[in-house]
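Reviewers asked in the last cycle whether our approach scales beyond single polypeptides. To address this, we selected a multi-component target totalling 237 residues and predicted its structure end to end. The input consisted of the following lines:
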Amino acid sequence: MITIKVQREDFDIGVELAGLSAGNTQIGGVASFTGLVRDIAAPGSAGSRMTLEHYPGMTEKQLHAIATQATERWPLDACLIIHRYGELAPGDRIVLVATASAHREAALSACAFLIDWLKTKAPFWKLEDDGATQRWVEAKDSDDAAAAKWADTK
Amino acid sequence: MKLLYFAWIRAKIGMAEETVTLPPEVGDVGQLLDWLETRGANFAAALKERGVVKVAVNQEYVGKDHKLGTGDEVALFPPVTGG
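The resulting structure, written as structure tokens, was:
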């Protein structure tokens, strides 16, 4: 069971994780990753902001494709991705990836796979404002490397 | 054909989307990028680093040799930075 949510609003991690395994007593473990906005402002300045732009339609399609790959690769009972867009402040939650399976190995591996792939495939772009200037966050080679390592290992 | 631009490519071009009629010599994604670059300094600046421009046709990633159809939705954007 795959659930994808692309939304402006915040989410409640406790409610989401409880909901993932509710009603399915075959699930033995739930793994999750939560991404947060880091503060990039200089100490003493007004504070930083972040705006997340995305491509409505393609975002949902890509997240669904990534989640489908995970369910084909690992025996998952449930898989959830929530990704926010719009204006965010330091400390705000950006993304939640959660996976549920009979055993921990599938849940933990699938969760790591999902966040690594999401970072290189899902069409989101971060615009950072450190209080003085705005800049588009650059993609990192380390993110590509993290996603690539899933190409030939399980 | 509908063209969509995102992030700094949108900012450099100065618009988020437009509908264009392709000249007959434009048949694939690479030729589309070549043609767009000739449409003004804003396009040339946005597409200068050709290697980092990602292209999606009908919301799927494609390569530069992907053939285009008149009803396609084509999006140009920089490498993604979500998560």
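Residues 73 and 154 of chain A are 8 Å apart (CA to CA). We regard this as preliminary and will revisit it once experimental data from Aim 1 are available.
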